[in-house]
Write a structure and sequence with these properties.
single chain, mainly alpha, 15 helices
Length: 377
């Protein structure tokens, strides 16, 4: 709700410049990144549910701080701590989900869980714009507080397995091994590359549509995208569990590349919606598949760090990518940008194979052996 209206709030309420409005929007991502970086090693040390509840309490409190903002400086500060709280709460929630789901259905379960992000991305901006048209910013902030309270109640109600073997973990330490999960770095590199591809769509599809005079079709782009993701993710999740990640990741890469090619050559509104379908099948399933891989390759007590590492790479690509890609657009234009992103989507396939895909057979054999052993918890 906030991401599409907070810049307008900064300009209308405080007379900020465009660059300041951009900082108000972007500082949230920096806060989220920092929250993920710090909390990754705490999730199992403090307890998965406790960390999630603490994160959601902080998220609820910081959602209410918008009412106290009285300058552009305080608004920037509120956005930063709000993002920090999101980084803590969402990382803990993702870790909890990875532990709740049975090992042999982990990809399928993560596919269901990650649909929540898709639904939020589809409905949040729509609600934000609708509320802005019919009410004022205070009502939008109040709605955010209400949603945060619902999230807090859900976190308190959730049944999360803790695992006695994790209770002895030490607290926060400033070391590379305790800030990121090394085994999740390869898949996080792939995630960053494909996040850049999606960032080009997320940030610039509206500007591209204005240039092509396809604004009406563009208004339905993410609705179609979300519908395709909702329909396809449960199927691809089950496929990944049964056949391995290569059976999902490589076709999804091709669909994403094809969708970006369609964007680069589109001439009509129907073509724009076809691109939405292809990108939905492509990136929509890559996102959940790569996260499933990130938590599958690590030991249970390292899932918190693996979740943090994965989302840091995703946030970095979606948060900082638009700035870099915007510089490219000024030099090569929209069509060439999407053509270049299609090439990047294809390039990501051998990168994925080298970093993970060639090891899938060995990892599946390891998982099968682990599943056959008696459970210790």
């Amino acid at each position: 709700m906030l991401i599409v209206v907070i810049g307008a709030h900064a300009m209308q309420e405080y007379g900020s410049s465009l660059s300041q409005a951009g900082l108000v929007a972007g500082i949230f991502v920096i806060g989220t990144l920092l929250g993920r970086l710090i909390i990754g090693q705490f999730v199992d040390a403090l307890g998965r549910k406790k960390t999630m509840v603490i994160g959601m309490i902080a998220f609820t409190i910081t959602s209410g701080l918008y009412f106290l903002s009285d300058s552009i400086a305080t608004l920037i500060a509120v956005r930063f701590v709000h993002g920090l709280a999101l980084g803590v709460g969402s990382t803990a929630a993702g870790t909890a989900v990875a532990h709740i789901i049975p090992r042999d259905r982990r990809a399928e379960g993560i596919s269901y869980y990650s649909l929540s992000t898709t639904l939020a991305a589809a409905t949040g901006p729509f609600l934000g714009v609708w509320l802005l048209q019919h009410t004022n910013f205070n009502w939008i902030f109040a709605a955010c507080v209400a949603v945060a309270i619902l999230g807090l109640l859900a976190a308190m109600w959730a049944q999360v397995p803790e695992g006695a073997s994790h209770a002895g973990l030490r607290g926060f330490q400033f070391s590379w091994a305790n800030l990121v999960e090394a085994r999740a770095i390869p898949i996080s590199v792939v995630t960053f590359l494909y996040g850049l591809c999606y960032a080009s769509v997320l940030a610039f599809i509206n500007g591209y549509a204005v240039e092509l005079d396809l604004v009406t079709a563009a208004s339905f782009f993410f609705i179609v995208y979300s519908a395709v993701v909702l329909l396809s993710r449960p199927l691809t999740g089950r496929l990944l569990d049964r056949k391995g990640s290569n059976m999902v990741v490589f076709p999804s890469c091709l669909f994403l590349a094809l969708g970006l090619v369609v964007l680069a050559t589109v001439q009509s509104g129907m073509g724009l919606l076809v691109a939405a379908v292809l990108i939905g099948i492509g990136f929509g399933n890559l996102q959940s598949a790569l996260y499933a891989v990130a938590v599958k390759v690590v030991a249970p007590q390292r899932m918190g760090l693996a979740t943090s590492t994965f989302y840091i790479s995703m946030d970095a690509s979606l948060g900082f990518g638009p700035y870099l890609l915007g510089l490219a657009i000024s030099e090569i234009g929209y069509r060439n940008l999407y053509g270049s992103m299609a090439a990047l989507a294809v390039l990501g396939m051998p990168v994925f194979y080298v970093l993970h895909g060639r090891h899938v057979g060995r990892l599946r054999a390891r998982d099968a052996l682990a599943a056959s052993l008696p459970k210790s918890e």
